[in-house]
Automatic annotation (TrEMBL):
Protein origin, superkingdom: Bacteria
PROSITE patterns attached to this UniProt entry: B12_BINDING
InterPro entries reported in the protein's UniProt record: Acid_CoA_mut_C, Cobalamin-bd, Cobalamin-bd_sf
Pfam families: B12-binding (PF02310)
Organism name: Tepidibacter formicigenes DSM 15518
SUPFAM superfamilies: Cobalamin (vitamin B12)-binding domain
Protein name per the record: Methylmalonyl-CoA mutase, C-terminal domain
Keyword Coiled coil: no
Record-level Gene Ontology MF annotations: cobalamin binding; isomerase activity; metal ion binding
Metal-binding as UniProt keyword: yes
Keywords: Cobalamin, Cobalt, Isomerase, Metal-binding
Amino acid sequence: MRPIRVLVAKPGLDGHDRGAKVIARALRDAGMEVIYTGLRQTPEQIVQTAIQEDVDVVAMSILSGAHNHLLPKVVQLLKEEEVYDEILVIGGGVIPDEDIPYLKEKGVAEIFTPGTPTNVTIDFIKENIKREIA
């Protein structure tokens, strides 16, 4: 069976990608295939890349403060494209604790804040992926 495919995306105008690169490397080292979008991606670009690359997970990293708009927008577009039920959506970055329940209500499965060990994210993906893995 193929490895878990993860799209690591940087939505919006956020110009900081150190955290995204750290998590991308950790996921790759854990045996996952990682596609990194680069900086300043629109929700539409993220969703189209997710579909084209046939990913199992969309992992968005955001530090700009626009998380309450951009992350739910990606979920909404995945639903419109009828692929949300096949793709695990997670987020990370500088996101206030009080915003996390809203993001989960909007369809983001989990939020990982600064200081979360990478193995916690890796385990969450393996335990919550929406397809059978070997």
